[in-house]
Structure formats: C-alpha cells, structure tokens
Amino acid sequence: MQWVHAWLLMLPAAILLALFTHYPAIATLWHSFFTTPKGGRPAQFAGFDNYQQLAQDPVFWQSLTNNLWYALGTIPVSIALAMLMAVWVSKNIAGRSFLRLAYFTPTILPMIAVANIWLFFFTPEYGLLEKLLGAFGSGGHNWLGSKNTALGCLMVVTVWKEAGFFMIFYLAALQSMSPHLADAAAIEGASRWYFFRRVTFPLLMPTTLFVFVNAVINAFRLVDHVVVMTRGGPDNATELLLFYIYEIGFRFWDSAYAAALTIVLLALLGLVAVLQFLFLERKVHYQ
Amino acid sequence: MSHVYASRGAVRGLETMGAWLLGLLWILPLAYAFWTAFHASEYSTRFVLAAPLTLDNFVTAWNAAPFARYFLNTVLLVAMVLAAQLVLVTLAAYAFARYAFPGRGILFALVLVQLMVMPDVLIVENYRTMTALGLKDTILAIGLPYMASAFGIFLLRQTFKSVPRELDEAARMEGCTSLQVLWKVYVPLARPVYLAYALVSVSYHWNNFLWPLIITNSVESRPVTVGLQVFSATDQGVDWSIITAATLLTTAPLLVAFLLFQRQFVASFMRAGIK
Description:
The structure holds two protein chains of two kinds. Chain A is mainly alpha-helical. Chain A has 13 helices and no strands. Chain A has one domain (59-286): Orthogonal Bundle (MetI-like fold). Chain A has helices spanning 2-31, 49-55, 58-90, 96-108, 111-122, 128-135, 150-175, 179-187, 192-203, 205-221, 224-229, 241-250, 255-286. In chain A, helix 2 (49-55) crosses helix 13 and helix 4 (96-108) packs across helix 7 (150-175). The two termini of chain A are 40 Å apart. By secondary structure, chain B is an all-alpha fold. Chain B has helices at 2-38, 56-64, 67-98, 104-116, 123-133, 139-143, 150-161, 165-173, 178-189, 191-207, 210-215, 224-233, 240-260, 262-274. Chain B is globular, with a radius of gyration of 24 Å.
C-alpha cells in the first residue's frame, strides 16, 4: 500500500512535469518529421526534410557557431572573474561589503533591464562608451551595429551579469574550507599564489564543475539580451540558437522547422548532461 | 625577512586596488543608469555635479505605459508560481525521500531531466499545448510550465533525507498520519531551505522574459519585463532618460528588497547552490 501513497504524493508534480517537459520534448521530435500546417492544409509527413533544410541553412550554421563562440567567450571569463571576486571578498579586504554588493547586484536584475542599460552604454555618439573613447580621440564606433563587435558586446553583458552569480558558489565553497590549510601554508612560507594554485584551486574543482555546467546551460538558454539589443543582427552576427528558434517559430510561424532546430538544441543540452555525468563520476575519486 | 613582508604588503595593496577597480567597473553601468534616470535628458551624458535632480522621467514613464497593471501581473505570477511550487515540490520530495516503491530511481531520473531540458527551450511545443488548452495570453499559462520544479524537488529531497528517522517515527507513535508528519516534522525543519528556494524562484520568475513574451499579447496578462520591452521598443523618440527611468522602475522592487535583505539573499543563493 505504501507505494500507492507515494504515487499519490507525486501525482500532481508528475502530471505537470509530463505535460510540460517530457511530452513537449517528445512532441518536438515527432513534429520535426512533419510539415508546418498552413491554412487549411494539415501537417504532412516529411521525413528528414526539415533536417535537410537545416543542414543547408546558413543562418542555422551561423547561429550554432555564434553560440559556440559566445559560450567559449563568456564561460571561462565569467568563471575566472567569479573565482577572483570570491577570493577577494572572502577575506578581510577594505570595503568588503561594498565590493560584494557591487559584484552581486547585476545578478538579481532582469536580463531585459540589464540589456536596456547596456544598450544605452553602447549607443553610437551619445553612449557613455563613445563619450569615454571620444575623450581619448578614438570615437566613431557603432559597437552594436558592426558585425565585428556586436557579439563581443553581448558577451560583455553576459559576463557582467553572470560573474557575480557564480561568485556566490565559490564564496560558499571557500567558507567551508578549513582555515587551518591557510595557516599551515603560511607557516610553511608558501606564497599566496602557490597556495591558491596548489590548494584552493583543486579544492574548488567540484564547484567549478557545477558552475561550468550552469554556465553552459545559460549560454544556450538565455537570449533576452539578443531580443533587446540586436535582434540577431547585424547580418546575423548575434544570432544565437534559441533566438533563431524564437524567430522561426514565432515570427515566421514555421513550427515544424522550429521543432527541428529545437531538437539540435536539446541534443546539445543532452551532450552536456552526459559529459557532466562522466565528469561527476570522476569527481568521486577526488574526494 | 623584512623585505619579504614588504613585498607581501605591496601584493596585498595591489589586490585591494584590483578588487576596487573591478568593483567600480561593475557598478558603473548601474550608476550611469541612475544618473540618466534622475536628470533631465540634456544631462544624460554631461556629468555636471550641479545638474539638477528630477523625477520627471519616472513620472513620464509611469504615465506612458500601464506599469501598475504590469506590476500587478508580475506579482500575481510570482505568487502563483511560488505557491504551486511549494506544494507540489514538498509532496514529491517527501515521496522520493521517505518512501520505497518500485520505479523510484527511474522516476527520479525522469524528474532530473528537467534540469537540462527546461521549459525555456521548449517554447514551440508548450505554445501549442497552451493554445490547445485555451490558456494562451493568461498569467496561468506563463507559470504553468514551471510549477513542477525539478530543482525544488531535488533540493528538498536532500533536505528531507537528512531529517533523523527517529523524529519521523516518534511523530507516528503519537498517531500522526504521513501527511501530518510531513507538515509537523519535515516542513518546519526545512524552513531555511524553503526560504532559499523561494528567493531563487521569485527572482527567476520576476526576471523571466522570453516565454512570457511569446505566450502573452495583452496588457491584462503581460508581466513587467515584457511590458518594459514593449514600452522601450515602441519608439519613444529614443529618449534614453525615460527608458532608463522605466528600466529602473521595473527593477526597483527587486533591487530595494535585495538591498534590504542582502545578507539573506546571498546566504540563500549560497545554500541553494551547495546542494
């Protein structure tokens, strides 16, 4: 009888999970093999047509490469900065509470608001960045309007918003570290850098892994700033995968093709899950 | 020996400087936003200390769009999602933590799938589902996909598992039913975890944007993030002072709450992260 009880307890959550996570994941796969119903014409089986279209779609490939560059450009920098911030504010540094506040505040703001603020920051002629550069005699850039710099601008915003969030996890890890380690190292005369490299950094490894997985997921999940700042432009230079899905699905209303694109995204996230699983297995040996 | 200490002091000084430089850099965009919002537009890039402060931008922004309604929608959304999450997550976590039943491992794995396959990426199908359910353009539709939270179930399961069995058994000896045990023993002991989870959930749903943007298209259901975007995107003659004021306006409640409860916020995020 016990398991009936357990099932009843789980039922509400299970129904919602099935309805809004498992069913849509499977339905996405199913619909990716059909055409988009249009007008009176119902969806027809199309085999791999959507995937063929995808393979030949330069915008898709660009959104994928952009997304990989975006991940590559934001994740290591945010993690390194987060670690640095955490090491700084975990000890007695002058103005510690102000620093914590400064580092962490971007995290609680909505990405959409953050993007609005940065949009102004990057504005040609009037923006603060241009004013600052103009003072040094090198203004005249259109940061978000140029193919070469637009994605970089988005990366800056992401790093600014995420580093403080990741800092929290490092801070938690650092505070659970025994102070005896630092004392012992000080007695041995180890330099602070040596101590960080040989003791702190390895001990933070599980946290780094956790943060890394979160950062990867965020790199593919969060495109609010693209909507506000560039809408994928100029010339698809800031097209990210989820934003492309949004455009195909809700501006061109091609739900079948959007389903095929979603499958690619799900496959990428699945890959992350598998890698995480493998690494977590190895982490066990560490402890 | 002494020069070693001198060089260490120098390193420390450099580090403090670096930390402050980074801190100032980090706060700069926000400080700039505040400056722009509280000054007339001719001062938005002219930093004169004597520039007169004004609240006009906020008044203009507030009157230019139904922000009051947007706020109400967001509050309703956040409260509804949190309430549903707390109930669903508690029940499911209890089952996973304290019941033995066939298929438990597989079911738990199925729950954890949501950590990777979040509602945020399943927008196309969930839109179809909401249309079929006739829920399109409602606040309920924004919140529904998030109510059964895998993160919450995972977090609470860990917490419930750490509750000593003896307490559970003692309560049952007293004649409590399983639900009463849950309510009287487990829930009170997990209070800090609930607080942490609530803060994370509230800030997540207050800030959520893409899904609400897709599923809503009227003032009656739009949350404040989408309202802000609609407001800034419809060309206001690109008056940045007003857009910045609107931006600060929409984030103000969260920002004020954060500044007031900074310690709890940080501690909660830490707690949620350690698990």
